[in-house]
Design a protein that fits this description.
- It comes from Amycolatopsis vancoresmycina DSM 44592.
- InterPro entries: Nucleotide_cyclase.
- This is Adenylate cyclase.
- The chain is an alpha+beta fold and 83 residues long.
- The chain has one domain.
- It contains 3 helices and 3 strands; from the N terminus they run H-E-H-H-E-E.
- It has a 3-stranded antiparallel beta sheet with strand order 1-3-2.
- A hairpin with an 8-residue loop joins strand 2 and strand 3.
- The longest helix has 12 residues.
- The two termini are 24 Å apart.
- The mean pLDDT is 83.
């Protein structure tokens, strides 16, 4: 497998080593998640990934793993994927 998605995943995996949860996800991944799954994520920030011109919005796992305590402040827009 090669391509932009694989390169992005490899870069995020490397950068995640410096994050307390050791997990980073792109905005595209969290945006595609069901609301019940997205509740486990919080905005991490925008990162510059090697080989990309635009910054990549990233998310990390919430410090509080209880999704019920998540405020509905995930301002994601765009189409949602259904299963």
């Amino acid at each position: 497998m090669i391509g932009d998605a694989v390169n992005e995943a490899a870069r995020l995996t490397e950068l995640a080593k410096a994050v307390p949860s050791r997990v980073l996800a792109s905005d595209a991944v969290v945006s595609a998640a069901l609301p019940s799954e997205a509740a486990y994520w919080e905005k991490h920030g925008e990162l510059e990934l090697r080989g990309r011109q635009a910054v990549t919005p990233t998310w990390t796992l919430r410090a509080d793993p209880d999704p019920a305590s998540a405020a509905p402040s995930n301002p994601r827009s765009g189409p949602r994927r259904t299963r």
